[in-house]
Amino acid sequence: MNQKAIIETHNLSKTYGNQVAVDDLTFSIEEGEIFGFLGPNGSGKTTTLLMLLGLTEPTRGWARVAGFNPTKEAIKVKKIVGYIPENIGFYDDMNAIENLLFIARLNNIPDSVSSPKIKDALERVGLKDEAEKKLGAYSRGMRQRLGIAEIYLKDPRIVFLDEPTLGLDPDGTTKIIEYIQSLSTDKNMTIFLSSHDLKQVQKISNRIGIMINGQMIAVGPIEKLAKEKLGVEDKAISLDDVYMKYFQEVSP
Prior knowledge:
Elements: E1 5-16, E2 19-30, E3 34-38, H1 45-52, E4 60-65, H2 74-80, E5 81-84, H3 96-106, H4 111-124, H5 140-154, E6 158-162, H6 170-187, E7 190-194, H7 198-204, E8 207-212, E9 215-220, H8 222-230, H9 239-250
Parallel strand pairs: 3-7, 3-8, 5-6, 6-7
Antiparallel strand pairs: 1-2, 1-4, 8-9
């Protein structure tokens, strides 16, 4: 195992009957890195996330998250990671403070410790004035920001984000991306970002990985992949162009 890697997989695979969802996935992510995880629907991204989180068991191969086996040590993994799925599950009949307090108690964080952290987290994500509003009245953008507040509360080493800006307007998207970037710069958290928003992924990612048909067909900094596929070294190259070049080469 790479001693610098906080996430690592080797021949990680998942099949459902005759359907191969993830095929011999081998890659690593270093601590503090923002890793953009790209691919079309059905490419195996979500299945990979679930295996790394210990929510589904690989058919073969292995993964390590901060040195832990997600399959055999799922509880240990859950203690050190944060996860914001595409649709965040909060209680609509509770307000933001009540939701975060409930989450803190589930994570064995004493109220005396969580209360000031909750106040700080809500202020960081601009929800201080909405803290006592029931979640049923929250917009999607506000719910996503509350998800980021949950990350600040839990203070994990690794954060998995699945389409965090989906359905948000440009202003909401910009805010979420800024919060994600601050988790890396201020907290040195490792960010595993799965998204279709290539412009935003390019803006904040140190490296990207491209999944197509269950396989990781490319991994590296955008400039490196641009040179390999487009023959250019311009840092301003669009990730859309790089991604489409890879996609077109493997598509039937």
